[in-house]
Amino acid sequence: MHRLPRSVLDELCAGRGGVGGVEHLRSAQRSKTLMLVRTLVLLLHETEHPDRAAVEAAYRVLMRMPPDDGAAALCHPPVAAWAFGTASLLRRGDRSATYPGLLAAVAVAAAVRSGSEADLDVPLAPSAPGRLDLPGLGTAVLPVHATRVRVRCVGGRAEVHCAGERIEIGDGRSADPRWLPVPRLQLAHDGLPLSLLLDTRTWRHVPGTGAGHRVGGGSTDPHRWQQRLDGAWRILVDGHRPIAEEISAALRALMPIPAPRAGTRSGTFHHAFGSVAMSMPPDSRSAAVTLAHEIQHLKLAALTDMFALVEPGPPEFHYAPWRTDPRPLDGLLHGAYAHLGVAGFWRRQRRMARTRAERHRAEVEFARWTRATDDTVRMLGTQRRLTAVGRRLVDGMAGVLDRWVREPVTPEAAAEASRLLGAHRARWERAPARTGVTQSFAGPLRCLHGGG
Questions:
Q1: Is the distance from CB of 109 to CB of 136 less than 8 angstroms?
Q2: Taking CA atoms, which of 5, 15, 215, 255 is between 20 and 30 Å from 415?
Q3: Which is nearest to 298 in space by CA: 259, 330, 267?
Q4: What's the CA angle centered on 313, arms 310 and 315, to 5 degrees?
Q5: ∠ Cα 237 11 348 (to 5°)
């Protein structure tokens, strides 16, 4: 059981939280994932699943490791999403779309990373024949007809044995061209690091991922991502240090997704704490504001695993000034919390502006998103279905916005913000209503859109 100190909860409700708040949320997410994996193993034990023995052996290997080593492998974001989706399907008695054998691959990756000894039978995913994906580590390319392999680990290295062939792998590059390591982005500025895995391969094993979300298919060129995010990281560290510290503490994986015609698409998975899905941003500033946006979704998703924010009730949908579709109450809370972060980004960005045009843009965006979020939070405050913690969240955001809406901007910026808000509302009122929120077993991919 996890307890969240009242002071930390109040900081999170105000849109902040800091590194300490992120670590509290991470600890709770780790416990959640460990429970899901334990549930998965127990459910599999009750069946005649062909991967049962391999999964149970892998679980024993993971539980023998130092706690931090095993938990780190299990809490790799797409692995956490896989655990949730697989446990959910097995609980329903649906084995058709599951790949429980991924736990053996997770155990191999953990053994290599920790330098532990292990000798494991690893089933391969039917959807990826001839490929052994080791989450967060890399992929071994095998004979196409292979359905399972034997892997022996010792001293931070491993040998994959399959159909009379042997492939040597490790945590990084290998002389064997059949080993394809996962690219890692290493960012650092002014003493603050950010390390992100471009692990697109593990996601293909997460039940339901991709349905309606177009997950995958984006640019996986690590050099392009490194260049774009280097600039974003400098912006965040120099002008938004508290947010950069939260991002550094929270994010571990980046999932590239296809780009829209303009702007950036991005999202976070509810059950994959520490990951962000993003298309290649057009510039460094767009990347910076996207990360400032998505860290808010990540924090709130983890908080909702600890506390209910909305009481159950009949479906109801509301206008959101950042979406073209009506939103349910929980979605509206998420959007308001994320755009509190967007408004805060532009509030601070005003001080970073080097030209009159840059300052005007920052003031327009600050006024626009502060007003949009304030209007939404005021409406949320009238909702009877908010729980005590949900109301605390709304009150926390309202306290911040009450101060921000009184901060002066130029008349030109205020007029432009009003025009943009009015145009969005007019378009929304003319468009046919669209209800329903696409779900996946990884959880909803929050805010997968180009506008916020």
A1: yes
A2: 15
A3: 267
A4: 105
A5: 35
Structure tokens at 238: 């120099």
For residues 106 and 40, is the Cβ–Cβ distance under 8 A? no
**DSSP H or E run through 414:** helix 411-430
DSSP per-residue string spanning 64-96: HS-HHHHHHHHTSHHHHHHHHHHHHHHHTT--T
User: Could you identify the residue written with the tokens 């938990």?
Assistant: 71
Task: Count other C-beta atoms under 10 Å from residue 14's C-beta.
Answer: 16
51 burial type by CB count under 10 A (0-12 exposed, 13-18 middle, 19+ buried): buried
The answer for residues whose C-beta is within 8 angstroms of residue 448's C-beta and 6 or more apart is 213, 257, 265, 266, 267, 277
> Nearest-CA neighbor of 157 among 111, 100, 189, 126?
111
pLDDT at 146: 85
Q: Quick one: which of 362, 370, 297, 363 has its CA closest to 335?
A: 297
Using DSSP, state whether 160 is helix, strand or coil: strand
Q: Which residue has the tokens 């022996």?
A: 152
* DSSP letter (8 states) at residue 204: G
Residues 83/33, Cβ–Cβ less than 8 Å: yes
The series of mean pLDDT values per 10 residues for the chain, 452 residues long, is 89 97 96 95 89 96 90 94 94 87 97 94 89 94 88 93 89 83 96 96 83 58 94 98 98 93 87 95 95 97 96 92 92 97 98 94 98 97 96 98 97 98 92 46 46 41
CA–CA gap between residue 244 and residue 237 (Å, rounded): 6
Pinpoint the alpha helices (H) of 121-221. none
Cα–Cα dist 137/171, whole Å: 6
332: number of Cβ within 10 Å: 23
User: Can you give the pLDDT at residue 131?
Assistant: 92
Longest dimension (CA), the chain: 75
Give pairs for 429-432: CB < 8 Å, separation 24+. Answer: 431/324
Domain ranges of the chain: 21-181, 184-440
Distance CA 142, CA 138 (A): 13
Distance between CA 64 and CA 61 in Å, rounded? 5
Query: In this structure, how many other beta carbons lie within 10 angstroms of the beta carbon of residue 186?
Result: 11
